[in-house]
Amino acid sequence: MTRPVSGRVAAVDGAQRVDDPAAAKLLTHEDYRAVLGAFLGRERSVSEAAQELRLGLDATLYRVRRLRQAGLLEVRSSRPRAGRAIKLYRAVHDAWFVPFEALPYADLEETFLELHVAHARTIARAAARALRRSEWSGYRIERNDDGRLWMRGVRMDGNGVGSPAADAGASDAMLELRLTPEDATRLNQELVDLVQRYTDLDRSDEGPPNRIVMFASVPVEPA
Predict the structure, then answer these.
(1) Residue ranges per domain, the chain?
(2) Does domain 16-102 have CATH number 1.10.10.10?
């Protein structure tokens, strides 16, 4: 299964423009977008979508109702059975374009904060669980020989752990670098290509995801 990675530009042609703030917010919300994806290009029942998503039936039904109210899902047909027929839903379109101005946030900074805060909470929960199983016990803050101030994880005995990778099977880093435009472009492309390579190896169809990967490389304007 091949999926595009953020950083690769997608065309707007053929996508349905969304200007309604309620629909725009649902389309950019990870939980609702995942449920919508179960009905993209095909008719499914709520229970079939819930099974595919490994999500509770009530939670799936609630999100289906919200998506339908926003005009993103519709009932296409029904499947006969004893008693009440089973409704089959399908996404109204196969692709959407959500302009920034359609999102119900004050500005672009708030937009990106809202889009990323859910990811940050998920990563924080996963990292905390991993670190509880490790010997990582705190932070050491000091200036390195290169003049930079660093904050690194350490064990209780004071031995540095550079990264919790060895102890907890996880890693994270936030660096501020000064790169030439050529090196910055190369870094961005290498990050996108690396994540795409592992996205192509994804086996989520065999079971729940067991790894969260998130990266960022953005220009910083002078203060």
Answers:
(1) 16-102, 105-170, 175-223
(2) yes
| Whole-angstrom distance, CA of residue 126 vs CA of residue 141 | 24
Question: Helix (H, G, I), strand (E, B), or coil: what is residue 70?
Answer: coil
Q: Burial-class residue 215 by CB neighbours within 10 Å (0-12, 13-18, 19+).
A: middle
CA distances from 217 to 36, 173, 178, 196 (A): 29, 12, 12, 15
Question: Over the stretch 61-117, which tens digit does the pLDDT of each residue have?
Answer: 999 999 999 999 999 999 988 888 999 999 999 999 999 999 988 888 898 888 888
pTM above 0.90, yes or no: no
3-class DSSP state of 188 = helix
- Three-state SS at 61: helix
